[in-house]
């Protein structure tokens, strides 16, 4: 049915459409609706399992346990909770656990500005846990897309045997748009569960769960390989190659607005919506698969433009990655403190295209009590 | 041409309900609609804001920075954006282009001041030039108090400029009780947990 649907609800519905059977979580704004909806869903459907855990650490580990036991599983949190989940995410990367982690970003670090929208977890997704791994992550900018990329995330998780992240933000999460998710659900393809439940041994497919490096094949199979660089390198590149192949199937992006303009604006999530009135004067590159970086695509598009500006609600996290990848300057307009507004975008662009810094001017200390502006305007 | 509406008040007044019903109604009318709520755990007496935009064409930017119509129901509202037409509850510290004693009218005509939020919705429908369609409105409202809510919306919709001017002169200040509760400690009723879930718009929320 075509009806107003919230971004967080669309993420949940996407998970269900993808075959999710287990949710564990701990409430944190602005992700809490996902937990609330999951609990209501489970109350009416015994086949769907729900756990409100004691914290995010337990939630993440419960999700991994459920996946090992055979269920497509997921959780949702925000930046501070996502930090607590990082150890479990690293474990899931090492052990190869298909799972989905939703991070609805607010302004950090720490509790920061819990009611305000931010995009400060781009690097946390990429490098948040220990060691080297190559995560896959998506970041929608609207309600229908939130549904679609959640399905993609579950599919990519099964194909890559890894935890896949869906990024969102306060505004995308709390945005209501008119969509018919039943119709969308009928159009998506779902990758079936890839692994048998723990305990159902499949010949030739040994699995190890300790988190330490183990020989998986050959004469030493089942023995620890904790001091064998060769085995580490074999397994590391096998995972890296697998993730790259899977990510390549989901090279989702938008290139649009005025493609003949001189300046390419890179932005994602809600910033791409707020900046949309710039469409007549700028070209847009919007990564939807935010990790791994769409380096080839960005390089190819960047060649067409005189300047590249990255608008993001953080201090240039995506811009850093793009600059490293394409070996040319990427100007930055940081939208900080939840101030994600067209006015702030225009002011930043004006500064940076005039040759100045994209950083906002530092406001003087308040002389009188200030009013709060929860929607980030002002 | 998009119409941008900003709603500013405190939790308990029905800001979210007004926005939700309005959004559901516009969706039923086949419009493109975005409704953007603030903080998901907004609670009684703390900030509560919403942006509603509707258009015949898809809406790119759901954030309102300059409202065509702005409805303010509390002094403790937090939005600092401008509105081309500002409607306030009569008796607030900040006056608008139009001051209507919503809470007093709700109490006087429907027995509860909280029906004032549906009177405000009726006025919004008029100002936004949205047709009053009884059936569509009913479908967009929760079942509970539906007749009262429809009556309240109709009352607000049928208010004339002359009547509004007369009310502003004659009526005593009209402040939603919640407006005074704004000084109470935040989060005394947690919005977390199943009871705090955001009901699907136009379904379970109560308005009366």
Structure, described:
The complex is a heterodimer of chains A (378) and B (208). With 378 residues, chain A is of the alpha/beta class. Chain A is built from 13 helices and 15 strands. Helices cover 39% and strands 19% of the residues of chain A. In chain A, strands 2, 3, 4, 5, 6, 7, 8 and 13 form an 8-stranded mixed beta sheet that branches. The longest helix of chain A is centred in the middle third of the chain and has 21 residues, at 229-249. The two termini of chain A are 37 Å apart. By secondary structure, chain B is of the alpha/beta class. Chain B has one domain (3-172): Pyruvate-ferredoxin Oxidoreductase, domain 3 (3-Layer(aba) Sandwich), CATH 3.40.920. Helix content of chain B is 34%, strand content 20%. Chain B contains 7 helices and 6 strands, in the order βαβββββαααααα. Chain B has helices at 15-28, 102-110, 116-127, 134-140, 146-158, 161-170, 177-181; strands spanning 3-10, 32-37, 47-55, 66-72, 82-89, 98-100. In chain B, helix 1 crosses helix 3 (116-127) and helix 1 (15-28) packs across helix 4 (134-140). Chains A and B meet through strand 1, helix 2, helix 7, strand 9 and helix 10 of A and helix 1, strand 2 and strand 3 of B.
- Average pLDDT, all residues of chain A: 95
How helix-rich are the residues of chain A, as a percent range? 25-40%
**CATH topology call of chain B:** Pyruvate-ferredoxin Oxidoreductase, domain 3
Helix content of chain B: 25-40%
Please outline what is shown here.
By secondary structure, chain A is of the alpha/beta class. In chain A, 39% of the residues lie in helices and 19% in strands. Chain A has 2 domains: 3-187, Rossmann fold (3-Layer(aba) Sandwich); 254-353, Rossmann fold.
């Amino acid at each position: 049915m075509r009806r107003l649907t919230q971004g967080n609800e669309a993420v949940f519905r996407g998970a269900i459409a993808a075959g999710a059977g287990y949710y564990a979580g701990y409430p944190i704004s602005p992700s809490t609706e996902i937990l609330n909806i999951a609990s209501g869903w489970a109350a009416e459907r015994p086949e769907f399992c729900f756990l409100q855990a004691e914290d995010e650490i337990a939630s993440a580990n419960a999700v991994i346990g459920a996946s090992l036991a055979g269920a497509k599983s997921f959780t949702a949190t925000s930046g501070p909770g996502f930090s607590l989940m990082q150890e479990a995410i690293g474990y899931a990367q090492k052990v190869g656990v298909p799972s989905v982690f939703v991070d609805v970003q607010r302004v950090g670090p720490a509790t920061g500005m819990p009611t305000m929208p931010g995009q400060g977890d781009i690097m946390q997704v990429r490098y948040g846990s220990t060691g080297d791994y190559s995560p896959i992550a998506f970041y929608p900018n609207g309600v229908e897309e939130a549904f679609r990329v959640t399905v993609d995330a579950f599919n990519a998780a099964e194909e890559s045997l890894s935890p896949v992240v869906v990024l969102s933000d306060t505004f995308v999460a709390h945005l209501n748009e008119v969509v018919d998710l039943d119709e969308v659900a009928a159009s998506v393809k779902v990758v079936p569960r890839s692994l048998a439940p723990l305990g159902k041994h499949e010949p030739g497919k040994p699995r190890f769960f300790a988190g330490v490096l183990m020989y998986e094949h050959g004469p030493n199979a089942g023995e620890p390989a904790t001091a064998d660089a060769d085995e580490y390198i074999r397994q590391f590149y096998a995972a890296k190659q697998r993730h790259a192949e899977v990510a390549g199937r989901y090279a989702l992006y938008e290139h649009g607005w005025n493609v003949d303009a001189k300046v390419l604006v890179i932005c994602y999530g809600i910033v791409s919506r707020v900046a949309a009135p710039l469409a007549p004067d700028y070209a847009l590159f919007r990564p939807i698969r935010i990790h791994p970086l769409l380096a080839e695509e960005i390089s190819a598009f960047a060649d067409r433009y005189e300047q590249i500006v990255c608008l993001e609600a953080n201090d240039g996290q995506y811009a850093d990655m793009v600059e490293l990848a394409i070996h040319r300057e990427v100007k930055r307009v940081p939208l900080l403190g939840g101030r994600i507004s067209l006015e702030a975008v225009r002011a930043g662009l004006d500064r940076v295209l005039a040759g100045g810094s994209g950083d906002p001017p530092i406001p003087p200390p308040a002389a009188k009590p200030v009013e709060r502006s929860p929607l980030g305007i002002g | 041409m998009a119409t941008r509406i900003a709603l500013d008040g405190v939790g308990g007044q029905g800001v979210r309900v007004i926005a939700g019903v309005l959004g559901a109604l516009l969706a039923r009318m086949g419009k493109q609609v975005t409704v953007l709520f603030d903080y998901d755990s907004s609670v009684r007496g703390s900030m509560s804001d919403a942006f509603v935009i509707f258009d015949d064409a898809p809406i790119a930017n759901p954030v309102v920075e300059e409202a065509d119509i702005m409805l303010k129901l509390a002094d403790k509202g937090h939005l600092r954006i401008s509105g081309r037409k500002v409607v306030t509850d009569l008796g607030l510290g900040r006056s608008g282009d139009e001051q209507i004693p919503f809470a007093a009218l709700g109490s006087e005509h429907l027995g509860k001041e909280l029906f004032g939020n549906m009177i405000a919705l009726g006025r919004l429908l008029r100002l936004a030039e949205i047709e009053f369609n009884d059936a569509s409105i009913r479908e967009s409202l929760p079942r509970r108090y539906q007749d009262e809510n429809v009556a309240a919306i109709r009352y607000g919709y049928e208010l004339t400029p002359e009547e509004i001017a007369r009310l502003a002169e004659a009526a005593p200040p009209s402040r939603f009780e919640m407006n005074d509760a704004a000084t109470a400690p935040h989060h005394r009723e947690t919005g977390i947990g199943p009871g705090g879930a955001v009901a699907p718009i136009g379904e379970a929320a109560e308005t009366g």
